[in-house]
Amino acid sequence: MSTEKLTIAKAINASLRTALETDPKVLVMGEDVGKLGGVFRVTDGLQKDFGEDRVIDTPLAESGIVGTAIGLALRGYRPVVEIQFDGFVFPAYDQIVTQLAKMHARALGKIKLPVVIRIPYGGAIGAVEHHSESPESLFAHVAGLKVVSPSNAADAYWMLQQAIQSDDPVIYFEPKRRYHDRSEVDTTAIPGPLHAARTVREGTDLTLAAYGPMVKTCLEAAAAAAEEGKSLEVLDLRSISPIDFDAVQKSVEKTGRLVVVHEAPVFFGSGAEIAARITERCFYHLEAPVLRVGGYHAPYPPSRLEDEYLPGLDRVLDSVDRALAYQG
After folding, report:
1. Which of 47, 244, 277, 281 is 20 to 30 A from 26, alpha carbon to alpha carbon?
2. pLDDT of residue 149
3. Which sign, positive or negative, has the C-alpha torsion 153, 238, 121, 208?
4. Mean pLDDT value across the chain
5. Of 210, 207, 201, 208, residue with least CA distance to 178
6. Would you say residue 328 has pLDDT above 80?
7. Closest-CA residue to 78 (of 13, 159, 165, 146)
8. SS3 282
9. H helices within 77-233, ranges in order?
10. 110 in helix, strand or coil?
11. What letters, b where the CB count within 10 A reaches 16 and e where it falls short, cover 168-184?
12. Are 270 and 292 in contact (CB under 8 A)?
């Protein structure tokens, strides 16, 4: 066993380092990922150790970065692309959804595109416009893409390893507000399936389902609710496409209530799909409607107002109270 307490940022760096050491076909590429080590220093030291041919500083052109990665993948490489901020991905959206996502099906399975696109996402860092978006549902809607988001350092390490080893394109959303959160990482462990949800707190009265940055918020809500005698189960979804509906169903069949939490707007968010599926699957087990907590259907506000926009402890607990107030 080789266990170390790492931040999420350091765990991602360690995972990239492992991948570069293990497979000569792995490349890291993006804006300022080399000499600077990335704006969040997630790729710090990699270019120094692996050279400019393996860790590549690209022009400021997201469409060109992803297009180049597609070409490299067609030649047998495994590119790991960094999009510097969530809001910068949209110039590359056409390449991602029109080419990257569809090439495997278009070639009747003969072509694989093992491309990982890392995207720091979400708010609560006091950033300017275009730096605090949560666009995960836009990618989850597209067939042919896998979409995942870790909530802790161990998952950050292992889920990235699994994403890089996947022959399918993976959008890997990194919760930037949690970059400095620390937890134990065992780099010799045998990880579970990439798209399996995980129960991170047992409970009996209600299930909180979340991924990425909101898992910690839900754990805090469960701790606060416990002081009032309420037992909340917290499920870390980990994967947004595909979603582990079996794990959600199993939890809801036990608790009878579900609240889905994500930073992205509630309107047409991933929580809507979860609510619809679980209502179909668990109709006779539900003691209350499935409720959703998320951002508002509005452009992301200036940083001084983001605390009002983002779902926090009070909004999660308010939905918990609403769900528990329903009587069968």
Report:
1. 244
2. 98
3. negative
4. 97
5. 210
6. no
7. 165
8. coil
9. 93-94, 103-106, 136-140, 153-165, 214-226
10. coil
11. bbbbbbbbbbbbebeee
12. no
